[in-house]
Amino acid sequence: MRVLAVIPARGGSVGVPLKNLAPVGGIPLVARAVRACVQAELIDEVVVSTDHPQIAEAARAAGAVVVDRPGELSGATASSESAVLHALDQLPADPGVVVLVQCTSAFIDPSDLDAAVVKVLDGTADVVFSGLETHEFLWSAEGAEGRQAANGQEARDGAAAVTTVNGVNHDPAFRPRRQDREPHYRETGAFYVMRTEGLREHGHRFFGSVAVQPVPSQHAVEVDTPEDLEVVRALAPFVDRPEPIDVDAVITDFDGVHTDDRAYVDQDGREMVAVSRSDGMGISLLRRSGVKLMIMSTEHNPVVAARARKLGVPVLQGLTDKRTVLRDWLAIEGLDPARVAYVGNDVNDLGPMSDVGWPVTVPDAHPRVRAAARIVLTRPGGAGAVRELCDRVLAARPEEVAETPAPRAELRLSPVAKPVQIGDALVGAGQPVYVIAEIGINHNGDLDIARRLIDVAADAGCQAVKFQKRTPEICVPLEQRDQIRQTPWGEMTYMEYKIRTEFGVDEYTQIAKYAAERNLHWFASPWDVPSVEFLEEMNVVTHKVASASVTDLELLRALAATGKPIILSTGMSTLEEIDQAVEILGTSRLVLMHATSTYPLPPEEANLRTIVTLQERYGVPVGYSGHERGLQISLAAVTLGAVTVERHITLDRTMWGSDHAASLEPSGLEHLVRDIRIIETALGDGVKRVFPGEEAPKSRLRRVTV
């Protein structure tokens, strides 16, 4: 090893408690020091000497080797040299050069480290320190002790204390211009590069020939006080180089992030806001890359809902406690908070920003928010801030390897599968498409909302409504049960929320009666075996297997034992997993549903030709369960042979709840059913013939030659 960097980072600190763990730009000071050393090309290894377990953990995460610093070398009077020498003693052999790096300097340029190391390696100097060039005039209070004693006596006598000073680097009688003076250098304390042999011999950092490595003024702030910490935190957005934002999810505030935080109000009190068109393309690209997106807003404003719909992003509105809602959402989605970005601009965003690995803000944010941010974007809200964020997130995503496109599959007729009887309807080829309105949990535990959604389905011309049935004590993971959620009914645990929104015998009895009155089938997706038994007692016409349950073999066996027809969704499943499920369920009363479990579904993930694949592989009727926005993909599925179409429905996509945003509103469902019936008519029977409407044009236009 030629060059070793040693970073002393004890846990004790008088001026700023646990200073070395204080975040600057969202990164602890010790991690910033380690990263600078790791990025320097000439430093072979980085060691952090510490007596504190959390500092050790942060150092290892940043890429350093940790040396346990003994107590006698960890006190306030212990020198940094003692920590460096102790670290050297732990090595089998000394490196040629050792670099002492201090965490108290938040901004260290790896290229400055390399330049300083070169000066020692090539023999230019024995020691090189980081210094700030200065032309300041310095003064010294010489004989200070005597004057302090005199001043003390004067103070006791009631006289004013006076301190006199003398010039240090100048003659007070001669004040040359800055450009006429040779510069001096102030130690910044950031780093010291030394010949290891010389350090061993002399025991301190300065010996032999000493040189300076100039650093810029913005890198020269040393953190010793809380005020210093505030300064470097304010500087970080301007000093740190823009870096890709490597995350799996992005959550944004709305006002001040998607907008410029202003509202235009007309004479009728209606609000309008200004947004950037470029944000839409950025959001679209981010969705395609697989990054999850969410908008959280304390406001409950139709403007927010309209913009969210336009962007295709789920939105939660009217939130009083964003932090709790964020924690719940991350737990439900199974996301690591360290790989999540939250973009805010005001003090109500400080809570959620503190819970994620990438707190982000806009340049005109509240000062406290700017100080808490790891990233401060360069563009303001409403002027491309969201697009800038998207571009930086995309920069961290792995580039897709270009593949030779597969030959376009030929559309061909699949073997005609025997229709499946569900209630009084036949589901299969040659039959009307069986349209299922998925109410799911969009009733929000309200029986009146459930009835209104049944009306929506009936009025649109659907054949069935579907719900979801769970036993919360079985389905809710232990680690999520006591998590607090903000709900329309107030603050409660996640378990209380799931119980609150779950319908029981009384509710489903009324649902069954009302669905029958509206001439609709009703059934549900059971998520556990007791729910299968419950639905059997309710005498449902069929059972639906959710995509998440394809590999729940215990549940599949219980469903197979009912003898009822089964509708099996195939989202997030491999063919091998579907094979295993079909083997248990059998094919005599089975309808498969092609699905992609992305909410909302981007067109490039729809993969509708899988409908043909499933028809040919299993020889059963195949339908489509969609989670996209709009109608086009569902209608295309019908042209490819889908015998049933299932879509989530809602009264309003802005309602509280996780599934509303990817659901169809009443007018959308009505248009879907209307267009499906038009397509069914237009598909015809495939027999080529001359239709009556062609006879007149034929007689006028047809020319026959021999």
Features:
706 residues; single chain; alpha/beta
Walk me through this protein's architecture.
The protein is of the alpha/beta class and 706 residues long. The protein is built from 25 helices and 31 strands. The chain has an 8-stranded parallel sheet with strand order 26-23-22-31-30-29-28-27. Strands 5-4-1-6-10-7-11 form a 7-stranded mixed sheet, sandwiched between helices. Helix 1 (29-39) packs parallel to helix 2, helix 14 packs parallel to helix 18 (505-517) and helix 14 packs parallel to helix 24. 40% of the residues are buried. The model is unreliable at 400-415 (pLDDT under 50).
Q: Could you list the spans in which at least 5 consecutive residues all have pLDDT below 50?
A: 400-415
Helix content: 25-40%
Please state roughly what percent of the residues sit in beta strands, choosing from under 5%, 5-15%, 15-25%, 25-35%, 35-45% or over 45%: 15-25%
SSE-based structural type: alpha/beta
Pathway: Amino-sugar metabolism; N-acetylneuraminate metabolism
GO molecular function, one term: N-acylneuraminate-9-phosphate synthase activity
Family: Belongs to the CMP-NeuNAc synthase family. Belongs to the KdsC family.
InterPro entries: Aldolase_TIM, Cytidylyl_trans, HAD-like_sf, HAD_sf, KdsC_fam, Nucleotide-diphossugar_trans, PseI-like, PseI/NeuA/B-like_N
List the helices and strands and how they pair.
Elements: E1 3-8, E2 23-24, E3 27-28, H1 29-39, E4 45-50, H2 53-62, E5 65-68, H3 80-89, E6 97-101, H4 110-121, E7 127-134, E8 139-140, H5 144-156, E9 166-167, E10 184-195, H6 196-202, E11 210-214, H7 226-239, E12 249-252, E13 264-265, E14 271-272, H8 277-288, E15 292-296, H9 302-311, E16 315-316, H10 322-333, E17 340-344, H11 350-354, E18 358-361, H12 367-372, E19 375-376, H13 385-396, E20 420-422, E21 425-427, E22 434-440, H14 447-460, E23 464-469, H15 472-475, H16 478-481, E24 484-487, E25 490-493, H17 494-500, H18 505-517, E26 521-526, H19 529-537, E27 543-545, H20 553-560, E28 566-569, H21 575-585, E29 590-595, H22 610-618, E30 622-626, H23 632-639, E31 644-648, H24 666-683, H25 692-701
Parallel strand pairs: 1-4, 1-6, 4-5, 7-11, 12-15, 12-17, 15-16, 17-18, 18-19, 22-23, 22-31, 23-26, 27-28, 28-29, 29-30, 30-31
Antiparallel strand pairs: 2-3, 6-10, 7-10, 8-9, 13-14, 20-21, 24-25
